[in-house]
Amino acid sequence: KVLRGGKLVLNLYSKLVLRLPGIFHFLSGSSVETNVTTHIALTQDSPGDLKLVIKDCSNLLGGFSVNLQKG
Question: Which N-terminal stretch is annotated as signal sequence (predicted)?
Fold first, then answer.
């Protein structure tokens, strides 16, 4: 059962910056940024057994951008 209470929203921001040696050095400094937002809930199957679950999987990816180094 879903526990009563306020609405919970999980917002994760991440940034991956590439640092590559050798022939892929031209990509070094490029980055990918993502923003993931979803509604979550606390559930309890049995006493003392709390779980965090995703309520809505349809809109997980809020947006992303790719930044390539010049040149």
Answer: none
